[in-house]
Write a structure and sequence with these properties.
- The chain is α/β, with parallel strands linked by helices and 508 residues long.
- Helices cover 40% and strands 16% of the residues.
- It has 19 helices and 19 strands.
- The strands form two sheets. Strands 8-1-10-19-18-17-16-15-14-11-12-13 form a twelve-stranded mixed sheet, with helices on both faces. Strands 4-3-2-5-6-7-9 form a seven-stranded parallel sheet, with helices on one face.
- Helix 12 links the parallel strand 14 and strand 15.
- The longest helix is centred in the last third of the chain and has 23 residues.
- The chain is elongated, with a radius of gyration of 26 Å.
- It starts with 15 loop residues before the first strand and ends with a helix.
Length: 508
């Protein structure tokens, strides 16, 4: 189908992301540019109906829950189309139709003219359908979901039926990806005109199911008038960052990464970071770790140069040879760790700071905020580490991940990668980027160590910090997705990603 056709839709999501306010601005600008509001609503309803027919071709009975705003108007359009196609349609009205206005009122009139069976919501009702459509609460929701909507969402969730969410699952915040009390569990979410940033991070991946985007043939001139809030990392962009190597290349062209960490009992962390760096193209990889770990790392990866380091050792010479540093994997919180981290952070070499390196930084920031602003570094916290860095708690971080990553970037004057479903990357004076690769199989030990090695390798090869963190997050998640496709999510190990990392950095 022609991408400029009003009924075109795709699972390839656009790079430009918007807040709810910006999306409403896109809608109003499209109307000013000559597309009638009811025309947009009709296009949205048609796309949602076409997606429903594609995803559940055998469905003969549909129940559509309609709210009192324009999201409900989309639902009335879907009901008309389903009725015209011969489906058995039940429309549940969550709001008195006498309160409908504008385009939603026109859509209601069309559904009534098509003799759609409509009835008010009853919390004791059952759902007799093959598929359910959620057209209740759109992007305008603020605050916790209240009845009767909360009861309707729970009814649908407990019905065990496939559900199509129109624009956004009811109860989800489109700006933050946070569940507002109770949220509809969609099988598929089809969203329109502007891709909402909150659909891609936080709790959203749990509730959205498969994401489908319909641009509704809104002209490019509309998008030129509304700023974007964030960017979704595209596979094509990642490929552009990894051009073919020159035929006369040598290892000196691709950087020297130094990995620092691995306190007693945690040598595997630096081993995995170093191996990932090698697989992602660093020309040379050195490791500084406890002397006890040197034989194990060399036996696993003899390509690495491994230096055993005791407390009080000077590592300035190793740092001077490095193009980039990864500091923190398995480093612990003792005096040995503090000694190494102090030297690493005192250098002018770009640093990827991870794991207990971030806990060291949190303590340093409490003592001396100015000493914790370095500039040329990448911080890679998970929500718990981010909370410590912000002197907050992980719940507050997760309540607004976009705000948290921006605050971290400002406080520490560097690039920040906030881990979690829908990883966020923020650098000073750059738009926040989102990586939507990855899966729950990554919830296992060592994944963060591998990520730091991937990013470190890209920095060592000359990428900017913002681009290295962005491409690294995407590649890391994509490697896990490839592995999950082969063997499943449960039981995935961090080292399972290695062959996939190498394929991805070679654009295979």
């Amino acid at each position: 189908m022609n991408p400029d056709h009003p009924h075109h839709y795709t699972s390839e999501l656009p790079a430009s992301l918007y807040t709810a306010e910006q999306t409403r601005e896109l809608d109003s600008t499209a109307v000013v540019e000559g597309i009638a509001g009811f025309d947009l609503m009709s296009r949205a309803g048609r796309v949602a109906f076409d997606v429903m027919k594609e995803k559940w071709p055998g469905a003969k009975r549909v129940t559509i829950f309609c709210g009192g705003g324009n999201n409900g108007g989309d639902g009335y359009i879907i009901a008309s189309l389903a009725r015209q196609s011969g489906m058995s349609v039940t429309l549940i009205q969550m709001s008195d139709p006498s309160r409908l206005k504008g385009d939603a009122l026109l859509a209601f009139g069309q559904a009534r003219a098509d003799q759609v069976d409509m009835k008010p919501f009853d919390r004791n009702m059952g759902i007799d359908a093959d598929v359910v459509v959620d057209a209740m609460l759109g992007t305008g929701l603020s605050g916790e979901v209240r009845d009767p909507y909360a009861s309707a969402i729970q009814l649908i969730n407990h019905a065990g039926l496939p559900a199509l969410a129109v624009d956004i699952p009811s109860g989800l915040c489109s700006d933050t990806g946070v569940s507002l009390g109770v949220t509809l569990q969609a099988s598929v979410t089809v969203t329109f005109i502007g891709m909402k940033q909150g659909l891609l991070t936080g709790q959203a991946p749990r509730f959205c199911g498969e994401l489908i985007f319909g641009g509704l043939a809104v002209p490019w001139s509309v998008y030129e008038q509304v700023p974007v809030s964030a960017e979704l990392i595209q596979p094509s962009w990642v490929r552009q960052q990894l051009p073919a190597r020159p035929r006369d290349a040598h290892k000196g062209l691709f950087g020297h990464l130094l990995v620092i960490g691995g306190d007693l009992g945690m040598g595997g962390a630096v081993a995995m970071a170093a191996e990932a760096a090698g697989r992602c193209g660093a020309g040379l990889v050195s490791v500084i770790t406890r002397s006890e770990h040197v034989p194990a790392i060399l036996s696993r990866r003899p390509e690495c140069m491994v230096l055993g380091c005791d407390e009080g050792s000077n590592i300035e010479q190793a740092i001077e040879k490095a193009t980039a540093i990864v500091a923190g994997p398995g480093i612990g919180r003792g005096r040995w760790a503090a000694f190494l981290l102090e030297q690493a952070l005192a250098s002018e070499v770009s640093v990827v700071l991870d794991a207990d390196g971030l806990n060291y930084l949190a303590a340093l920031a409490e003592q001396s905020p100015d000493a914790a602003r370095r500039g040329n570094w990448i911080l890679t916290p998970h929500p718990g580490e981010a909370a410590r860095l912000l002197q907050s708690d992980s719940r507050s971080v997760q309540q607004d991940r976009f705000r948290a990553v921006t605050r971290l970037c400002e406080r520490f004057d560097g690039t920040v990668l906030l881990k979690g479903a829908g990883t966020l990357i923020k650098s000073p004076e750059c738009l926040t980027r989102i990586s939507d690769t990855g899966n729950p199989g990554m919830a296992s030990g060592g994944m963060g160590d591998v990520l730091s090695g991937v990013i470190g390798a890209l920095v060592a090869q000359g990428m900017s910090l913002h681009d290295a963190a962005s491409a690294g997050a995407w590649i890391h998640g994509a490697a896990a997705d490839r592995n999950a496709a082969l063997t499943g999510e449960r039981g995935m190990l961090a080292t399972d990603l290695m062959p996939h990392l190498q394929a991805l950095v070679n654009n295979q």
